[in-house]
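The instructor's notes for this session suggest beginning with a concrete chain rather than abstract definitions. Hand out the sequence below and ask the class to guess, before any prediction is shown, which regions might be ordered.
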Amino acid sequence: MQQKLFRTLAITASLLMVAPFSSHANDLSISPSITASTYDPADPATQVLAMEELDVWGRIRNGFGIPDLDNPLVVSQTNWYSTRPEYIQRTTLRASRYLFHVLQELEKRDMPTELALLPFIESAFNPEAYSSAKASGMWQFIPSTGLDFNLKQNMFKDERRDVLASTDAALTYLQKLHGMFGDWQLALAAYNWGEGSVQRAIKKNEAAGLPTDFNSLSALMPAETRNYVPKLQAVKNIIATPEAFGITLPKAENQPYFVTIGKTRDIDLKVAAQLAELSLDEFKTLNPQFNRPVITGNTSTKILLPQQNAERFKINLAQWNRPLSSWMAHTVTKRERIEAIATLFDTEPQLLRDVNHIPPNMRLKAGSTILVPKTAKAAETDIAAEVADNAVMAIEPDVPDFRRIAVRVGKHDNLVSIAQRYKVTVAQVKNWNDLQRDNLRNGQTLQVQIPFQANSRTGRSTVHATASRQHPKVTRSDKKLRSGPMLASAR
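After discussion, reveal the predicted structure:
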């Protein structure tokens, strides 16, 4: 009876959270993770557990489905984690924000629930984690694999860090790998090592008449992958029986930690955090995908807020009488220094460098788009969707455009031959040297200005009298060194 009562109350609560509401130019909608339209009593993903199973950890234990791995590395990894209770406490506390959502998505797909612990190994549940191999986010996608699974990566956002988008992509990728190998342990090895590497290892063992399970293939794996599945098994062992290791897990409520807010207008990160009554750091723990201080609004823009802060956001937004965003996009049509742009928009050069991540002594190349403070004329104008999706920023060393050199006039030289040699005009040579006539004398010294060109490898500036060569483009296949996400050290 108690269980039935709780289930009724829980369902009623989720239904009360459903109704979307609008405010501030009707650009706001808030949705819970489970809505009236999606609730199905027959669907385990939307069922509410019994009173004694309210904690998400218990729900994860109930869905374990990957056969346990048994090898010496599991023992050593379990010892490593279990002797660091502070690390376990810190990571599981961070995980409690995301576990309900990840677990719900796993159950929808009928996938083993210990996969919810995989970010423990990948990123220590830090959605802003970034590895030396350029893997990013809670699930550690490298750029090319992120693109394979439709994770946008542009100037304004990187969906490899998006909690919702990256979780969906990671589970889709894991499903694909399981379909390829028919074995979750090999699928996990492929997630770390790449499916091609695992396939080659399988073929090698098959040719030698050897088994192709994880333990049998591990000798062919790099150390990182050899330890990868044992690490997950170790964490699984601790979560299964934390008391056996003297560990107390933080409470992880069996309900959504956050709700999804749709935003169709631009809004500054600081303003969004202020309206939600959160610190900027707290806001970023749920919304780490945004690369710039403004969130560009459109029909697909989603921001996440803890449930208790969503209502505050709504109330405060309705009372807000100032611009939501203080930034607009500016595209340069020629090489331009930050100081010149700062003067144009009456701001400080260092502010533009900080906001746009432009290092010192660098300037913008033609076609680059950056953020600048909004002008009064553009106060109500948002950044266009095509700009937000396609904006790029290219920089180069801020060296002088020209270098002055001394040229000694030879016996057979004249203004025309010297101008042609250095690809300048006769008028320029005369102007630089304050010449009133075209006649030159043998041995005379002239000043000529020739263009600098930045060396793309060293960053140093070199001088060329010929036209600059165009560098070959780097293709996606050149960048994609391996097919699986890289492992960021959780230690």
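Then share the key points. The chain is about 40% helix and 10% strand. The radius of gyration is 30 Å.
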